[in-house]
Amino acid sequence: MGWITAAAVMFTPFLTTFVTAAPAAAEPKPTEAQLRKELKQLNTKVDKLIERYNLKRVELAEARKKAEAAEERLATAEKTLAAAEDRVAELAQLQYQNGGGMRLPSMMTLPDGRSVALLEQLTAEQQAQVAKVAKARDERKRAADEAAALAEEIAADAAEVAGQRKEAEGVIKDIQKKLEDLVPFATGRRSDGTWAPQLPSGPDNITPRTRLMKTEIAKNFALPYTVGCFRSGSSGEHPLGRACDFMMSVGGTMPTPANSALGDRIADWAIKNRAKLGVKYVIWKQRINHGSGWRGMSDRGSITENHYDHVHISMH
Questions:
Q1: φ, ψ for residue 167, nearest 5 deg
Q2: Per DSSP, what are the bridge partners of residue 189?
Q3: Are residues 219 and 155 located together in one domain of the fold?
Q4: Is 107 helix (H, G, I), strand (E, B) or coil?
Q5: For position 125, which CATH number holds?
Q6: Buried-most residue among 29, 156, 246, 275 (CB within 10 A)?
Q7: Which residues of 45-84 are buried (b: 16+ CB within 10 A; e: fewer)?
Q8: Is 160 within a domain?
Q9: Is residue 202 classed as helix, strand or coil in its secondary structure?
Q10: How far is CA 97 from CA 64, 103, 111, 115, in A?
Q11: What is the pLDDT of residues 178-230, one digit of tens each?
Q12: Burial class (CB in 10 A: 0-12, 13-18, 19+), 172
């Protein structure tokens, strides 16, 4: 029995550790306010990355313009040089024909009797043109080198910015997914998936499910105009307190492109969360969606009646 006692003594510390060790406490889930704050910070970070990238593109474009200007100056200088070279060659040929051989006299007279400048002076002028061309070439090289260096720099910066942007957008998507998970479940859903009727309540005369939907959309989107829900004397769910209109423009006019895109996002969000919130259908841009895809509607005669200026959301 001695070996049993020894084994018990040997394994007791391990058994004690196994039995008494408590599982590590899970980290608490971040609150909605914390997630929204982080999302705002990341969106600001992405905006700064885009701004930095765009400024680099502007710098590169300016460098390329300088290089093009240098090329134009060089072309002009080369034309001037070619003209000067042709004139010197012409004068040298005339001098040779007058028996001067290859010697450059101090003065010479052309057949028409006019005095001309010294060939040495013309040669000096030619050399001045050559100097101008050399200077233009140097300017072009500096501009080209600057553009090439900046192109390499912007390529590296663009790769870095793209990586940072991709990383930030990935985190943003993760946070948005977490925010979607925070969308609460509305009350009144039966076990078979249907929804029990609700009475309107409160000063806004809408049902609890409608109020929850309206509140959640206001949390997730910056609404540009008013939201109209209860409306007496009309058909549909408005008199029942089961529908809201999220205005994207006023006065029966078409929304701006930005507000039209916002309406798209609100409509898509409502459809995506319809099972949680109890959304019955969404109408937007002369289309209706009961959760199985968008279907066109007949023309009712106006921008408002055709739901181009507001997203209509009806609830169960």
A1: -65, -45
A2: 195
A3: no
A4: coil
A5: 1.10.287
A6: 246
A7: bbeebeeebeebeeebeebbebbeebeebbeebeeebeeb
A8: yes
A9: coil
A10: 49, 12, 11, 17
A11: 888 889 999 999 999 999 999 999 999 999 999 999 999 999 999 999 999 99
A12: middle
